[in-house]
């Protein structure tokens, strides 16, 4: 037989085979035992009844993957593929391989020579039939229709609606867009009930448990009933950790935003870059593409871990782009270790070499480039800290030290860092400077496309701070605003009228009628604050909080001030601030529309129910500090809050703390009839300078934060108004005094109570938080640290010294 006949015979043979394959599957997605599929370019797969999903061979380079995909979506994204979990590789079958549904072993994949490559393990019974379900689940059933095997029990990187992840269940990211081997990230529901996103070391697959990128904090060893048991992606598109007691913890941020399941395909995927995203795709419309409902973590570049490189490789710099995706770049003077792996490690173009020490002056050998907004934080990178140091000294210190690869100057601190650098990031919120050392003899460092490389270094030119802030603000907008913008854009479409106030903000202007309708006639009250009543409302697909200022417009001046303030507030974008979405300014009425946060105030959280965990409390404290730092130093116009208290801190669905009611105090000041004394703030939280003839600065917020921090540590109010039965100890009636007494007497356990084992065991951080609080509540504002310092104290990046008595002039009457 010559070649031509042979090919045509084969062709004919396949043509004949096709109808038989089709017989293997009925319209109801059922696949009979004995049916098989062959790995060819044009084989027809087993489809689900609706045709939405298909099971079959998917070509991958010159091999084929046994997989399940969205059949009606272009490019047919895979939702499952046969995977060898032991080695972390997909099963790649050569052309001509065959998968068959057998009675003894369920699905069996064999190569053209008959060698078994993979099989679904069905232990208990003989398979009777299989079903490609409309949910995207391929199920092998026994004679009693019981499930013997299903693809939903063996996820790779994707979950579909109705799929769950049990304790010890895992999702693995791919290595990169084109290689489906196990990648650098893993999402697992741990034994303790916590859902965590960790880094994986390659090629060993060791999982770094420190510095997870995301954790749901659904482990509660003290109270098992609070612990998570299952990750559920339910029919209506909600993704949550179910706790033993039936309560749910939403993994996504936009609880109200899940698109209707009937009209959209949905999936959650742990992408190769480590971002866990909920995607949706409009059914029957191929012109739109996949959109994101939410993604976790909020910022994958912000990992703090002792081991592992971070979201990008060693020495690399991670930066979030507008869709909250990490992009990695090498610093000047460095290049990719593997040029094909953009997310991999960077190596210095010329190694720093201490053996050259002494032959030449270091200054002649090396020079530095300055990067702004760039840091490799964490003690693991540091080997020396020089203080107080200025720019010249810091740069020189690194130049003259053969070990030093990078020096970071922040405020008056100069950190010397060594290779390899880990967890590098570019972040608009970071105000320090990074001096990157490179070897002179060679060429000058390759100038990367980093927007903020200081080219003028040799002339010693200093870029003016205002431009710097401008850039970092913009970056902040872009990063933090990503979710919010998504939210906005969703309902912008739904609203007929969209106006802009000023050029800089994205605020929407609402009519009173629109807001009356949104709030159902101002029906459901969420709370009352110093400025008015807050109502719950619904606009488009989102829930909002509408604040009706109870102050009538006084005159033109007040109105102008209102606009100015709104503009300032509208420009703030930070993950720990409640976002203003729009406002209404009609006749006498002034209303503000904020995003709605579903988990109430910190006051309720701290004082009402069971104590939140110590970990959660420290996170909340850090979040508030970070929000305040932003208000004080990082937004374009400094905002002093003047009324920091637990009632003004709201919690979002993930229990992230968000500061509310900021930027409004100026408005109130213009009209002081309400508060006779002119003091703005709330008793128990106001700084002493309000009562004295002293200028009011941002330090008033530091004071209030200190009080709040004590309350967070102790889970009780600063001033207990009515002595409860169990608490008649006069010494402890005012927390700020009592805390210092306990600190001085070394009885800080009294502060947290017997039940707070977690805090007791984390003594170091307990002491650090307490001392930080005591520094914040110093009567002398000059002694109080700035919020920047406070964040460093809380993070533990600076040492917290023993605080003096906060109120040396106050005598407590016993
Ligand atoms: C698909 O799965 C769902 C949920 O398990 C089940 O109710 C339904 O009957 C299945 N469909 C088919 C065609 O087996
Ligand atoms: C994917 O990456 C792994 C690990 O580096 C490698 O062994 C494998 O050959 C790659 N597969 C493909 C299809 O490139
Ligand atoms: C555990 O927490 C639940 C609330 O989720 C509470 O009702 C229960 O009393 C707690 N149990 C213990 C032993 O603390
Ligand atoms: C899915 O979960 C959400 C939120 O927990 C809930 O409101 C909804 O009813 C659930 N849907 C189904 C079909 O169970
Ligand atoms: C698909 O979506 C686009 C963008 O939303 C829209 O303009 C178009 O009309 C839609 N097409 C169909 C067939 O629904
Ligand atoms: C962000 O990066 C991802 C992956 O590199 C890319 O697909 C996406 O288009 C980028 N988004 C923006 C807004 O630049
Ligand atoms: C926090 O939000 C979750 C999800 O919406 C809800 O189940 C829980 O009850 C809320 N907790 C409080 C204290 O409001």
UniProtKB/TrEMBL annotation:
Reaction equation(s) it catalyzes: L-seryl-[protein] + ATP = O-phospho-L-seryl-[protein] + ADP + H(+); L-threonyl-[protein] + ATP = O-phospho-L-threonyl-[protein] + ADP + H(+)
Record membrane topology: Single-pass membrane protein
CDD domains tied to this protein: STKc_IRAK
Domain of life, source organism: Eukaryota
Keyword terms, alphabetized: ATP-binding, Disulfide bond, EGF-like domain, Glycoprotein, Kinase, Membrane, Nucleotide-binding, Receptor, Serine/threonine-protein kinase, Signal, Transferase, Transmembrane, Transmembrane helix
All residue ranges annotated as the Protein kinase domain in the record: 520-810
Entry EC number(s): 2.7.11.1
SUPFAM superfamilies: alpha-D-mannose-specific plant lectins, Protein kinase-like (PK-like)
InterPro entries on file: Bulb-type_lectin_dom, Bulb-type_lectin_dom_sf, G-type_lectin_kinases/EP1-like, Kinase-like_dom_sf, Prot_kinase_dom, Protein_kinase_ATP_BS, S_locus_glycoprot_dom, Ser/Thr_kinase_AS
Enzyme class: transferase
Xref: Pfam families: B_lectin, Pkinase, S_locus_glycop
Residues engaged in binding ATP: 548
Record keyword Signal present: yes
Signal peptide feature range: 1-26
Primary residence: membrane
UniProt subcellular location: Membrane
Domain annotation Bulb-type lectin: ranges: 31-153
Family (UniProt): Belongs to the protein kinase superfamily. Ser/Thr protein kinase family.
Protein name: Receptor-like serine/threonine-protein kinase
Source lineage: Eukaryota, Viridiplantae, Streptophyta, Embryophyta, Tracheophyta
């Amino acid at each position: 037989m010559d070649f031509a006949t042979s090919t045509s015979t084969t062709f004919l043979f396949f043509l004949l085979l096709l109808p038989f394959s089709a017989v293997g599957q009925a319209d109801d997605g059922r696949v009979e035992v004995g049916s098989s599929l062959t790995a060819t370019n044009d084989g027809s797969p087993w489809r689900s009844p609706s045709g939405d999903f298909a099971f079959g061979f998917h070509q991958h380079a010159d091999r084929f993957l046994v997989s399940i995909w969205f059949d009606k979506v272009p490019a047919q994204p895979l939702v499952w593929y046969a995977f060898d979990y032991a080695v972390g590789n997909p099963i790649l079958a050569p052309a001509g391989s065959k998968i068959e549904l057998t009675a003894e072993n369920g699905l069996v994949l064999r190569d053209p020579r008959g060698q078994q490559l993979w099989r679904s393990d069905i232990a208990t019974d003989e398979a009777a039939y299989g079903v490609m379900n409309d949910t995207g689940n391929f199920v092998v059933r026994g004679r009693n229709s019981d499930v013997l095997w299903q693809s939903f029990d063996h996820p790779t990187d994707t979950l579909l609606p109705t799929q769950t992840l049990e304790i010890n269940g895992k999702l693995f990211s791919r290595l990169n867009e084109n290689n489906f081997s196990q990648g650098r990230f893993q999402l697992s529901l741990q034994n303790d009930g916590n859902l965590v996103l960790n880094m994986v070391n390659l090629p060993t697959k060791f999982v770094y448990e420190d510095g997870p990128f995301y954790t749901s904090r659904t482990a509660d060893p003290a109270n098992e009933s609070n612990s998570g048991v299952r990750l559920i992606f339910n029919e209506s598109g909600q993704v949550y950790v179910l706790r033993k007691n039936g309560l749910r913890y939403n993994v996504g941020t936009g609880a109200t935003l899940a698109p209707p399941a009937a009209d959209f395909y949905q999936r959650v995927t742990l992408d190769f870059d480590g971002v866990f995203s909920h995607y949706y795709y409009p059914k029957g419309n191929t012109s739109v593409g996949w959109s994101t409902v939410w993604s976790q973590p909020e910022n994958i570049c912000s990992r703090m871990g002792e081991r592992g490189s971070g979201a990008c490789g060693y020495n690399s710099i991670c930066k979030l782009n507008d869709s909250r995706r990490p992009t990695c770049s090498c610093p000047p003077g460095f290049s990719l270790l593997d040029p094909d792996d953009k997310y991999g490690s960077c190596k210095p173009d010329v190694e720093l070499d201490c053996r050259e020490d002494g032959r030449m002056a270091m200054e002649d050998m090396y020079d530095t480039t300055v990067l702004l907004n760039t840091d490799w934080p964490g003690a693991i990178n540091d080997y020396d800290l020089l203080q107080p140091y200025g720019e010249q000294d810091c740069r020189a210190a690194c130049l003259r030290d053969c070990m030093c690869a990078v020096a970071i100057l922040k405020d008056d601190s100069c950190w010397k860092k060594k290779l390899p650098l880990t967890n590098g990031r570019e972040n608009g919120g970071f105000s320090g400077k990074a001096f990157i050392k490179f070897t002179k003899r060679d060429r000058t460092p390759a100038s990367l496309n980093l927007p903020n490389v200081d080219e003028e270094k040799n002339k010693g030119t200093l870029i003016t701070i205002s431009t710097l802030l401008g850039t970092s603000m913009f970056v902040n907008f872009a990063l933090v605003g990503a979710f919010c913008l998504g939210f906005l854009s969703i309902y912008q479409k739904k609203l007929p009228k969209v106006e802009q106030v000023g050029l800089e903000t994205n605020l929407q202007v609402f009519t009173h009628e629109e807001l009356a309708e949104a709030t159902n006639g101002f029906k459901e009250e969420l709370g009352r604050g110093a400025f008015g009543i807050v109502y719950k409302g619904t606009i488009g697909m989102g829930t909002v909080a509408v604040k009706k200022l109870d102050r009538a417009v006084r005159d033109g001046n007040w109105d102008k001030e209102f606009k100015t303030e709104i503009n300032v507030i509208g420009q703030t974008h930070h993950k720990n601030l409640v976002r203003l979405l729009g406002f209404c300014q009609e006749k006498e009425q002034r209303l503000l529309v904020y995003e709605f946060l579903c988990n109430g105030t910190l006051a309720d959280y701290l004082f009402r129910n069971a104590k939140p965990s110590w970990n959660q409390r420290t996170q909340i404290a850090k979040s508030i500090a970070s929000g305040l730092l932003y208000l004080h130093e990082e937004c374009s116009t400094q905002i002093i809050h003047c009324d920091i208290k637990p009632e003004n801190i709201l919690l979002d669905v993930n229990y992230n703390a968000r500061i509310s009611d900021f930027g409004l105090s100026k408005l109130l000041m213009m009209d002081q009839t309400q508060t006779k004394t002119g003091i703005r703030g709330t008793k128990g939280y106001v700084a002493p300078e309000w009562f004295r003839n002293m200028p009011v600065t941002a330090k008033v917020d530091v004071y209030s934060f200190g009080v709040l921090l004590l309350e967070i540590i102790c889970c009780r109010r600063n001033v207990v108004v009515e002595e409860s039965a169990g608490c008649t100890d006069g010494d402890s009636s005012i927390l700020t005094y009592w805390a210092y007494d306990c600190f001085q007497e070394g009885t800080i356990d009294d502060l947290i109570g017997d039940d707070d084992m977690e805090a007791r065991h984390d003594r170091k951080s307990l002491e650090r938080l307490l001392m930080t609080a005591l520094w914040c509540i110093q009567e002398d504002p000059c002694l109080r640290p700035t919020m920047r310092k406070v964040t460093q104290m809380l993070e533990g990046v600076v040492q917290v010294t023993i605080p003096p008595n906060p109120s040396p002039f106050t005598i407590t009457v016993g």
